[in-house]
Structures are given as C-alpha cells and as structure tokens.
C-alpha cells in the first residue's frame, strides 16, 4: 500500500476521533459547543506534538554529547521543538497524504546545472521535497524525485526504483551524471544504489540527517529497513566497507546535533567525506531549512 494512502487513512481516523471527542465534550461533559469543537480538533495536533516531544526525549537520552558551541538556550530549544512540530504536522497531515499526485517543480533539459535526484526517507514520499525542489529549479537544476514503495521493505529493495529514476533524469536532461540528495534513510538508499551500480553516474552525493552509523530509534520502527538502520548493524558495516576514498570524496554529510530521530547525532559521519554540522534543527526540519538548502547548493557547485 502506498504511504500516501496509509497516511490518508490515519488522518481520517484522527478526524473521526476528534469528532467523537468534540461530541462527547459538547453532549455529555457539559462543555459549550464553542469550546468542545476546537478542543476536539486540537486533540490530534496535541498528540502529534507529544509524539515529537517523546522523540526529542529519546534522542536526548540516546544522543551524543552536544559540542559546547552547538548547545542551545532554553528559548532555542523551545524554538527547535515547536518548529519540528509544525514541520511534522505540515508533512504528515497535509503534504504527504493529500499532495502526493501533484508533480514537483523541475527545470527543463537545457539546464547547464547538474541534474538532481531527491531521495526521501523512511515512511515518507516525494512531497517532502516540494519546497526544496522549487528552490533548486529556480537555480537552474533539473529535478527528479521518486516515491520509495512499499514502506517497510529492505533498503536494497529500493535500488531498482532509484536506478529507474536515474535513467529517467539522464534521459530527460541528456546528462551523463547526476547528483543525489538523500534525507534520512534516503541517503542510505543512495549509497546502496552506488554499491550496486558502481557509482560512475553519481557526480555528487549529499546526505541530510542520514543514520550512517545507525540510530537508536530504529528499534522502534517496522520492517527490514529499520533493522538495517540499527546501530552498527551488519548491513551498515558492509555498506561502509564497499566505499573507497575516491567515492567518499564526492560525499557531503549534513547532520544536526539536535536531530530528534537520528541519535547518536555527532557520529553520523563518513570517513573521507565532507561534514557540515548544524544545531537547532530537528529531523524533519532539516528538509525545510534554508541554511541546509544553502549548504546543499554549495556542495552541488563542486559537482563535475
């Protein structure tokens, strides 16, 4: 089942629960309907905010020590949390379930900039890239994004889908090589594709919030892919051993010391790759943050 369809079902179930709560508050609990209806509608959002808060709590306990220069004030931590809540709601309640069929922006085949293939992460779809894809297109990049389905399979099962997306992008643009940008698990999918194909077609690889060493949160997920993303799994170690220094020189790794899904945070690097560190950005917010976009743009400028 497509991730968009699963999310639509979940959102509709949330709305049914919200309606049930509002009805109970207004009909049985003595609340005025003017108060009961907003309270019912707010309940799913508050639950969502609670889940994000729980993720931050787990990431704090399982995380690596934050460098002193990257530490946040109380106000900074609150801002990071509320922004991640907003980005999580916009992603999972609106963009992914309801905008799924809509095409993303993309430059035409005459562009002189390196073509870009966007690879989303676990339990997502290509709509998470919509703002960033438009931004890249404005800068002259031909952009392609794919949906990785089904949701809970092995990361290696996505390699043929990525190969087909690369073929389409090369055919559309006439370019020999493309740049791959992967968010979260998407970075591992890109690396698995390179292991399978040899990497000659990858001009540049940028990973954003990718669990290169694994994440504690993978214990809480479903499917073979989450088992592969556990801390220092055999799959991750084999992937690491397959890459040489020349390949790694084409990698840029972007990580946040306040990632609430990928923890420990500071160890998510690749030997021989360039690493750029951020603070005050949650896991989903990494896909929407303009500081991250600027860092990606700089990395793409190095592409052949």
UniProtKB/TrEMBL annotation:
The protein's matches in SUPFAM superfamilies, at most eight in alphabetical order, are given as:
alpha/beta-Hydrolases
Query: Matching InterPro entries, A to Z?
Result: AB_hydrolase_1, AB_hydrolase_fold
Residue ranges of domain AB hydrolase-1 in the record: 115-216
The protein here is known as Pimeloyl-ACP methyl ester carboxylesterase
Source organism of the structure: Quisquiliibacterium transsilvanicum
């Amino acid at each position: 089942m497509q991730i968009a369809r699963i999310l639509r079902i979940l959102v509709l179930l949330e709305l049914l629960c919200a309606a049930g709560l509002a009805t109970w508050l207004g009909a049985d609990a003595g609340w005025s309907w003017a108060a009961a209806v907003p309270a019912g509608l707010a309940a799913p959002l508050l639950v969502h905010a609670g889940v994000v808060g729980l993720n931050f709590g787990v990431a704090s306990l399982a995380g690596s020590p934050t460098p002193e220069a990257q530490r946040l004030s109380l106000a900074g931590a609150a801002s990071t949390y509320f922004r991640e809540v907003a980005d999580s709601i916009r992603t999972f309640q609106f963009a992914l379930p309801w905008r799924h069929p809509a095409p993303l922006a993309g430059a035409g085949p005459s562009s002189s900039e390196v073509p870009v293939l966007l690879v989303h992460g676990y339990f997502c779809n290509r709509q998470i890239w919509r703002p960033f894809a438009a931004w890249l297109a404005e800068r002259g990049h031909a952009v392609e994004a794919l949906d990785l389905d089904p949701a809970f399979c092995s990361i290696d099962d996505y390699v043929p889908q990525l190969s087909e997306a690369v073929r389409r992008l090369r055919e559309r643009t006439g370019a020999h090589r493309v740049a791959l940008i992967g968010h979260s698990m998407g970075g591992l999918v890109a690396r698995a594709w390179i292991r399978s194909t040899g990497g000659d077609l990858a001009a540049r690889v940028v990973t954003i919030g990718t669990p290169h060493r694994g994440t504690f949160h993978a214990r809480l997920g479903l499917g073979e892919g989450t088992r592969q993303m556990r801390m220092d799994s055999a799959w991750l170690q084999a992937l690491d051993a397959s890459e040489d220094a020349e390949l790694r020189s084409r990698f840029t790794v972007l990580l946040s010391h306040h990632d609430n899904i990928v923890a420990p945070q500071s160890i998510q690097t690749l030997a021989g790759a360039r690493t750029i560190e951020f603070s005050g950005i949650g896991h989903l917010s990494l896909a929407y943050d303009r500081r991250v976009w600027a860092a990606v743009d700089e990395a793409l400028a190095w592409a052949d």
